[in-house]
Amino acid sequence: MNIQHSRELYKEAKSHIVGGVNSPSRAFKGVSGGTPVFMEKGEGAYLYDVDGNTYIDYIGGYGPIITGHAHPHITRAITEAAQAGVLYGTPTSLENQFAKKLKDAIPSLEKVRFVNSGTEAVMTTIRVARAYTGRNKIIKFAGCYHGHSDLVLVAAGSGPATLGSPDSAGVTHNIAEEVITVPFNDIDSYKQALDAYGDDIAAVLVEPIVGNFGIVEPEPGFLETVNQMTHDAGALVIYDEVITAFRFHYGAAQDILGVHPDLTAMGKIIGGGLPIGAYGGSVKIMEEIAPLGPAYQAGTMAGNPASMKAGIACLEVLEDQGVYDKLEVLGKKLEDGLAKIADDTQVPVQINRKVGALTLYFSSREVKNYDDAEATNSEQFSTFFHSLLEQGIHLAPSKFEAWFLTTAHTEEDITATLKAAEIAFRAVKSR
Ligand code: PMP
């Protein structure tokens, strides 16, 4: 595949933009390098690059693009928003309409706030939990990414009940000491952490279905026990549903799982592809926030009309249950096809899938936590990734990311993907 123009643009990008990219994972570091492909158009399930190549897209914008690129209903909403002026710095009825729509879909949200990213949403839920409880520390699960605010950039996989150390330069040890990291799906470690630090814990931060070391579901009873133990310790439960809200059904993962947090952070899908974040919870807790309470959070762009309109339009598309039924059918076809080819080519893999989100791990060991995910074969993933890319199938460039299906993908797209995967698996086998 000729990607000459992408090569030139990447070279130029590196002279203007740090590392040539505005978000590190785009730089192909997770797949042994290579040239990131520069896109100029997305339509439906496809991305079109600057050299005239077409790709079946499984990045899905890292999650938000569940209805496919340039969905007509969302595009119309964004165009209307642009024509009406994009920012007033005053309230609009769109904010009311969207807040109500979110509340109707996710019953644990009695009050919400809109922000501009998942990072902001999570960061603020932690602040609110600290304000509400008057405590400082949080517990998070190893390998779970919650955005790039200081507190959650803490080393993963550090073993049960250990205090965190910073994962990024510029995050101080003092901050990292406020975070305790425990393995996902490991209730004994969680109990140890609470026993050791319970009185200081403001909240536990949970991806109820993990999306950031691949798709990993909670073991039966895990979330229920975490909720119970956390509340017994006088702390709050925060669900980071930035990936999971509206990903698997019309609503949040908490309602599929039947376990409810005190606070929920969202982003990605709810913006229909425009920048957004939102958080919410019970009236009692949310009233900690300014202007009603002492916890401060604000934003020039928060609740801007374009993101509101795009988000409302996206949810309008998703209200049709047929959308999720289709994602399930496509997801199953992809999963079954990949499993069969892996078996035929004798490449050991694990496939974790929930509806239209799937992770293919190169490993013979089940993946239930970050250590399992980390132990999967990175070289094999890189070979597989580059072979698919060369054949016009674009996965996210990391073994820890999910493949995101959209409602624009067709059975033919899956068939084409599986055909390419046969070649990719053979490339993995012959290395
Ligand atoms: N939480 C989760 C679970 C995420 O996956 C992400 C982004 N990948 C974030 C928070 C941060 O969201 P954003 O990139 O919009 O700041």
Automatic annotation (TrEMBL):
InterPro entries: 4pyrrol_synth_GluAld_NH2Trfase, Aminotrans_3, Aminotrans_3_PPA_site, PyrdxlP-dep_Trfase, PyrdxlP-dep_Trfase_major, PyrdxlP-dep_Trfase_small
Enzyme Commission no: 5.4.3.8
Keyword tags: Cytoplasm, Isomerase, Porphyrin biosynthesis, Pyridoxal phosphate
Residues bearing the modification N6-(pyridoxal phosphate)lysine: 268
HAMAP family: HemL_aminotrans_3
Family named by the database record: Belongs to the class-III pyridoxal-phosphate-dependent aminotransferase family. HemL subfamily.
Protein name: Glutamate-1-semialdehyde 2,1-aminomutase
Phylogenetic placement of the source organism: Bacteria, Bacillati, Bacillota, Bacilli, Bacillales
Gene that produces this protein: hemL
